[in-house]
Amino acid sequence: MEMKKHQEDQFAKLAVFLSETKQPFINVQTDQITHAMELLKVLPAAQDAVLEYYGKFFDYAISTYLKQLKVQPSWVESSNSSSRHEPPIIPPEVIENVTSIRDVLLRLVEEDHLVWAHVVLHWSYKLLGKVSKHYNVNEFARVPLGEMLRFWSQCSVAYILVDINNKTIAKMVKAEGERSVDPMIEIMLGYKSSSFEWVLAQIGDSFPSLVVMDMLLYGIKEMCSTKKFKCTEKLNSFIRIIDHLSLTYFDNIKDVVFKLFKLSLCEEHQKLTAENVMIVPFLLHMAMCSSTLLNSMLCENLTQITPELLNKLVPLYSQWKKYFDEKCSLLDILVKMLLNADRGIKHVFNLIFQLFGCEDPKFKTLKTGTQTLFEIFLAEIELTLNTSLLSPPIVKELLANLYTFKPYLLSTNVDVAQPAARLFNRVAIRDPECLLPYIATMLIESKNSTQLETLIEVLSFGSNMAYFNASLVYALAKTDVSLSNMWNNINTLISLESDLPDGISIYGVSSAVVSHLDKICRSMIESCHCGDMNSAHLLSFILSKVSEKLCMKELSVPKVLYCVKSAVLYFFTCLFKEKDEMFKLKACLRMNKFVNTVSYRSSIARTAAMKYILDGVLKEPFSLLFVMPDNRRNDYIIQPLEKTSLTGSFFQQEYNSMFGRKITLKFDKDGLHPKYKMPVFDAKSVRFNEQRLVSFLRSCYSSDECYSFEPTLDTVVSLALLVVQFVSPDVMYNGLPWPDEDFTKVTIERDVHIYHTITTKPILWTILGILAGHRPALCYCSVLLRAVCACLINHWGAVNHTKGKSKDNPQLLDDTVKLLNTMSLGQLLPKPLDVLGVIVRELTPQQILIMLRDCVWTYTRDNIPAPALFLRNNIGGMWRDTMAVSVPKPYSDSLRLTMIENISEFGDLYARLFTNSKEQSIET
Amino acid sequence: MDYNEVKVNLRKFAFPLSTENALNQIQSIINGETSRKQHLNEDLAMDLISEFIFCETNEEGKSTKPMSRIRHLELLVMICDYFNKTKIKQDNDNCCGDTALNAIFMTLFPQFGAPPQRTNMLVSLVSLAISTYSNLILQSAGVQMQQLGCSSKYSLQLADGLVNKFFTFIGTQSTSLHLLPQNAPLFTANLMTALSELYFNPKTTDTTMSIVLPPRIVLETVVRWINSDPCLCFTAHYTDLQRALPSGAIPMVATLPFLGLFRWCFFAPLCVKNSEDLAIYSELHCALIESVMQGWKVYSEENPRISRPYTLSVHSVLLPQLKALIEETMKSNDPASMYSVEIVVERLAQSIHAAIISDTIFGNKQDLVNQLETLPANNVLKSLIKRIQV
């Protein structure tokens, strides 16, 4: 009986439910909804009906909402700008019912998810599909996904429906793990109409990784079944959804893509399913269609992909082939992708360069493949950049990331460095200026031939040479690195400039270097100061190499001065420090030529050069170069040490005193503390030094293009004036006239000074000798001769006074001979006085004194040795006609008488000098 | 009455009256008038069912859109009502139902000639009938299942549908399930046979050798049913179908659920890892042994004329399948699986022993021994073989 009652009960309930379904929805009460729910639990047979009823109610609720929309159609349009209107309101009781349906279903799911989750999910999915399709057809066809999402998100009922869906999925994911939902989502992905997209986008918002993964797997399955990649409507729809999700869940997408990729990696290829094999081709195809996916691939995950990892994929290639046809091979796809890529491109190229760098033979296939890919890519990018106005996004990205590839550019592996150089070239086609820092870096850091080769590859491409100069500026501006390596590289480049095979040209290196002459000179000066001879030599090579270019250019005054100064300093330093004789000689010759090149057109340069030379010669420490070991006088106690301006002035101008002191100490440290020790230059090297100096000097003042070192008078005169300027302590009494001998009492102090200078720096005699050779230049040095003469007279007077012998004063005698010989050479003492230098050695101090007084001093006082006395003779030189204007008797008589006194020794000479003359013989 | 006349008359009504009238009409066609030729009657009945009951075709005989679920439910309720209205003869036991109703049921849900969605209808109807104790429908369904064979596609679809749409949604505490053996023993027995074929059956899954496990609720229900009545499994054997069938029909031989359910017990230790489930399987095993030992004895003592049924057969594919599975398992060679094999062999020996005792085993003794000797040695098995050979 109880059973009967139960039976009736059940049927009664069913009858009630069925009658309710026939009523209009507007009257539906909440308890009806819950009644229906009881049926759901007790009568599985009624389940479908109840769910359908619920579905219809949802449908009704949404339709009331949409009906209101139609009343105010402007809402849809205005939604673009701003939602001025409030969204239409669904009656609260409807919302209440809808909410209670949601609660009912979710409670069921909560109670027994294993059973109900599938049912509810299936129901909500079907309903969502139906609703989206139904309300899409007319008004909202072909609406973009974002628009569609906004539209539906305004509809609270639809939102509740999505909520049911998502909460159920969440429950399943929580209780059974992520993979449990896959079949369900796969069913959802089988949708036909794009109007369903928004639902998936909504689900994706809650479960991004899940949905994206399933979508991609779905696509792979589809591709597997068709055996061909086709960009179907479904895939486009997936791409739209992924694009939407990427706004918020880009990281998830990245992870999913990478996870998927890893699926295709497996040690044993037999174990891979056809779908796993498919993954890579599929992803590549997809990336071509979707920039989001492309970006998700090009991300930092790429750093996890190593050549080893990629190598595992190689065996799969044969299976991939069938998915690519001739129109669209794997390489084409990759190139196309690369061209479209923007973010993350540096990872790709890092990988490519890693592969290039692989020496392991097992990567050979991979390496060749990559090289081919790279070639095609470069060709493509070059073509694009040269033909189209727009530049592909990758170029911008590469430009921004160039610095990451710098290590490859500097790689010592040709396989890496060359491609890197070519990449740099192609990328910089539009904007070669961006290469500046890299060229600069390469200039500074290149150490071996491979790196230089790379540099030349970069420089010789297109018009990159035009930017060499700017790169040089860039490199020189770097203060924190040692530039010696760069100079080395530049030296090599200059040598190569004229000596490269066809098709490669780095013409312009030397002119660029010339424009930085001052920098080079400065470095040279600096390295001379530091005693860094290697750099100094290097720089001197560069200087001598670019010297040809110097002729073409009008140099500014400071540059010229720098050049000259550095050349002179280098010359001296070389003499001072360089041990290798041959090298020293070569270096000096180099500088001769250089200085000649610089100065033959510029009088400033010439003057400066001579000035610097004299400065060096006369002052510490270089004056020591020219002091014979036996002729050394330690008289620094009397006079303070005078440093050459080549070092000293330089410090004062350019560096603080501390630094200057440091450099000075460095010079001193070479074992030459001036007060206690003398630098050791033996006679041989002193002679050598003298020779070099003379030739150096000559190369300065000769203004001959043919490098014959024939000086003009002007230059010699200026040298003479300079000598005076340097040696004479003040500007007074530097003129030509010789005063009365008594007047020397007034000038004795400066005379002593001059005499001291000349005697301690015997090289001055050599210089005076040169001047004497170029008549009448010596005239301008009268003051020096005068001072020496005055001093000698005094000295000899003192010797005479003490009854000393002339042989006992060899130094004095030596100086006297030098003075007399120099004056004779310069024709200041014409015939017969020019023999004085020969005879003076045999005379007593008294006789010497007489000779100096009568024959030298008095003669020159009365016959002022003016340049006007010299006339140009027929061979172009200047000559004092001593035959016509012979020395008057009073001056030569003393000589004659003295010679007569010593006739035993000077008989022969005497005869030649005096007896030939009739006039003289009569008088005698 | 002419065919068209009948249809035109029915078309005057709308649902639900049209359906109700159609049901009555069909009853009279099938069970009433014999003047017409039998096959013509059947054709008319089929037409009426398609058009007026399940609304699968329209007036021109073309297929229509499927009806809504609510309408569907309404229809089911109506059919239930129709069956429940019928007065049951007092002398009828609760096995076979009413002959006339059986005939109508068979026409409503034939094995062939009905569109596939009718199967869903059948499942829903049976499901509703179980919930609402509409026993006559269940009894008819039981007869139909036995006539078509419990392992036929028809029965398997019904059983599978019930599992998916009914069992999973009904809790174990549901009284309607518990009362099912009382209300419709034949249906219950045949359902068990069909269910036993669905699971642990390497045959049913074609490509892969994967074995489908029964849901917990099905397993528990089966155990409870067998425990509730040790004779239940023999129901199909002793039910006299002849009187439940329309005149001229030949009753089919019964299949008993023993073989299939024993297979569950043998396969379970090798396939199931869940210890709770394993416990239920051993319960099932005990219940089956109990049923084999006691069930038939009890019944045959009351009804000595009934022929002896066979619970196990030496010639079934069960033993080779089991052997293959055991060998597969023994490959892994870990102690747990070796223990499982031990259990399986013991169970096998026990069940054969029970069948021998109750004398319900079919086949040659020597064949059996030959087959048993290929299995891994075991004390229980050894004593069994010894016993058989004596």
Automatic annotation (TrEMBL), chain A:
Domain Integrator complex subunit 5 N-terminal: 9-224
Record-linked InterPro entries: INTS5, INTS5_C, INTS5_N
GO biological process terms on file: snRNA 3'-end processing
One of the record's GO cellular component terms: integrator complex
Domain of life: Eukaryota
Domain called Integrator complex subunit 5 C-terminal: residue spans: 234-906
Signal peptide: none
Pfam family, one: INTS5_N
UniProt-listed PANTHER family: INTEGRATOR COMPLEX SUBUNIT 5
Protein name: Integrator complex subunit 5
UniProtKB/TrEMBL annotation, chain B:
Name this protein carries in UniProt: Uncharacterized protein C7orf26 homolog
Superkingdom: Eukaryota
Pfam (any one): INTS15
Alphabetical list of InterPro entries matching this protein: INTS15
